[in-house]
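Amino Acid Chain and Its Fold in Token Form
===========================================
Purpose: to set a sequence beside its fold so the mapping can be learned.
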Amino acid sequence: MSDEEHHFESKADAGASKTFPQQAGTIRKNGYIVIKGRPCKVVEVSTSKTGKHGHAKCHFVAIDIFNGKKLEDIVPSSHNCDVPHVNRTDYQLIDISEDGFVSLLTENGNTKDDLKLPTDENLLNQIKSGFEEGKDLVVSVMSAMGEEQICALKDIGPKN
């Protein structure tokens, strides 16, 4: 064996930590599931009885958490499904650039400048009008499977 120390600095992510397996029969409404490679929130689950040969099946109806599209999947209840790790983080809004990117203040005092304004018209208008009025705004950013998007807005009062 050699005495050398090896230091690997990885810039890429293998993707293993983006999801975890969970038995289909244990996934409930308002939980999360990956359907067709997209992180989704489950809005409806129905389980069919076992047939003469085979397993009970779970029919999932879910909404993509980033683009709002409805997706469906049918999985045997004893099989594993991928469940995304979904995180919500709150950031204070500092600035909105002309090209639609927002500048956010992180907890440790750094800025996060890689997020675009949300595509949801209602939320987009709330953020823009609140920012123009000089209000202190906190945005909730949902992240899953390497994607991030602003999903909610809180008004914490006027700027001092």
About this structure: The chain has two domains: 16-84, 87-158.
